[in-house]
Specification:
This protein has 478 residues and is α/β, with parallel strands linked by helices. Helices cover 31% and strands 15% of the residues.
């Protein structure tokens, strides 16, 4: 009986879908990622289900939306009773290895890995040594989270080496393997060592728009007020974007190292490879940095997704919509395994023959009011005296000054339109064909009423399809 196919998942934390070369960005250098796209299938319209790390990573493993099982926050990891792709592979005698930050599994599952990086499941393992920092703008406002030409991701290089060694030296060659390599970059702080720092030409860079949208929602206005400033210096945004591109170039070097090791291992033709990102990053767009739980602009939700599989023809580019829930059933199908749990996602194989598997993608974020109020009170207790409350780190200041910006929100996106519905009522509607940068919120425009109603109804049906039965129902009777 032939050995089962192996699986490698490479995740770059906070990588935008428009910031890779194969997607048409000529300012960023990603030759290894582009090569992977050429030898695999690139899903060009792939979207995150939550603009934050842990919920999106959990969704990949379960094939389910985050609200269904309650994985809506950073510290909530997959518990021992939650079935997922990893536990399925372990039951089939796969060697398991995860290098880089966890942000997915609880401590028991994390410690049960056959091989893993030396990272706590609840910390990101960021290395921030001292040393000279290049700043083209002095001082750079704190809200930009800018570090310049500083080594803030030495752990990524350690984990890339460990992942490569696993492939070529340390794994049990008699068993199939599952390996996940989680790269911390290009997550802020925005900093990277040379030669990557200087790779993007600051002068010729095609910059993202820094204006906020017309009729911008509270979450955007609050971040500009508390994080980067109502009136920003566009050169700050340019510097952040260029440094973000440098971080991506270093990510690309790690991808190249792992793919070279796979080639050297002799397992290339028996291994499925997924390259993706959990969510995106502002990287200067809208004059903002990092991300926000309840903002669903494409810069935060549209991400790269490449699958290279021995049974798929190389070089295909798929325009059909997909999201993170689709990855688990797709990978299971490629590996020839049956998942012992229900998923919301659709296997993407039909899209290779031009058949769409979904009419819309969905994303969500935020928390119930009691939790938001509790978080605000917690921040307030250590921001003393009274007149200093909320004046600390700009992100915490935003939480404290505008807690309602973190209330629950949901997005539906089609190829043409995007609708965002929030508890606060500051909803959004964009025509993406006319307004790809999402700068004109037309929620109050009567001309869009029919399209809004159609998306409202589809969003409601999605909720009905995916709302949980808790505790799980095993039978239905009179």
């Amino acid at each position: 009986m032939p050995k089962r196919q192996n699986l490698i998942i490479i995740c770059a934390d906070e990588l935008r879908g428009d910031c890779v070369g194969y997607a048409g960005n000529t300012d960023v250098r990603t030759p290894n990622i582009d090569s992977l796209a050429s030898s695999g299938v690139a899903f060009l319209n792939h979207f995150a289900v939550y603009p934050k790390c842990t919920p999106s990573r959990v969704s990949l493993m379960t094939g389910r939306y985050t609200h269904t099982d309650g994985y809506r926050a950073l510290p909530i990891h997959l518990g021992p009773k939650q079935p997922d792709l990893l536990s399925t592979l372990k039951s089939l005698d796969y060697v398991t290895a995860v290098f880089g930050k966890n942000h997915c599994w609880d401590e028991g599952r994390w410690n049960a890995m056959d091989h893993r990086g030396d990272r706590s499941p609840y910390t990101d393992g960021v290395s921030r040594p001292g040393g000279p920092t290049f700043r083209s703008h002095e001082p750079m406002p704190l809200g930009w989270d800018y570090a310049g030409a500083r080594d803030v991701r030495s752990g990524d290089r350690v984990n890339a080496t460990s992942a490569a060694r696993f492939l070529t030296e340390t794994r049990d060659r008699s068993r199939p393997f599952f390996m996940q390599f989680n790269i911390e970059s290009p997550h802020p702080p925005y900093g990277v060592i040379e030669p990557f720092f200087s790779m993007a030409d600051r002068q010729s860079l095609k910059t993202f728009p820094t204006d906020i949208p017309k009729n911008a929602p509270l979450c955007v206005r609050a971040q500009r007020e508390c994080r980067t400033g109502v009136a920003i210096d566009p050169s700050h945004a340019r510097e952040v974007q260029a440094t973000y591109y440098g971080m991506i170039a270093e990510v690309d070097s790690h991808v190249g190292k792992v793919m070279s090791a796979l080639e050297a291992s002799g397992e290339r033709d028996n291994t499925v490879v997924l390259f993706w990102s959990d969510h995106g990053d502002y990287a200067g767009q809208y004059g903002l940095a990092e991300k926000w739980d309840t903002h669903f602009a494409d810069c935060l939700t549209h991400v790269p997704c490449i699958i290279r599989a021995p049974q798929w023809h190389a070089g295909q580019r798929v325009e059909h919509l997909s999201d993170h829930t689709d990855l688990c059933p797709t990978l299971a199908s490629l590996l020839g395994i049956k998942l012992p749990f229900g998923v919301h996602g659709r296997c993407l194989e039909p899209t290779l023959q031009g058949q769409p598997v979904r009419d819309a993608v969905f994303s969500e974020g935020g928390h119930e009011k009691a939790i938001v109020d509790q978080a605000r009170d917690h921040i307030g207790k250590w921001m003393v005296p009274e007149e200093e409350k909320g004046k600390g780190f700009p992100k915490n200041k935003t939480y404290y000054a505008h807690p309602e910006s973190m209330l629950r929100s949901r997005m539906i996106r089609t190829h043409q339109h995007k609708l965002v519905v929030r508890q606060t009522g500051d909803n959004e509607f964009y025509d993406l064909c006319d307004d790809p940068w999402e700068l004109d919120n037309r929620i109050a425009d009567p001309a869009t009423a029919a399209d809004q109603l159609r998306l409202f109804e589809r969003l409601a049906r999605w909720g009905l399809e995916t709302d949980p039965d808790s505790p799980p129902i095993t039978s239905i009777g009179a």
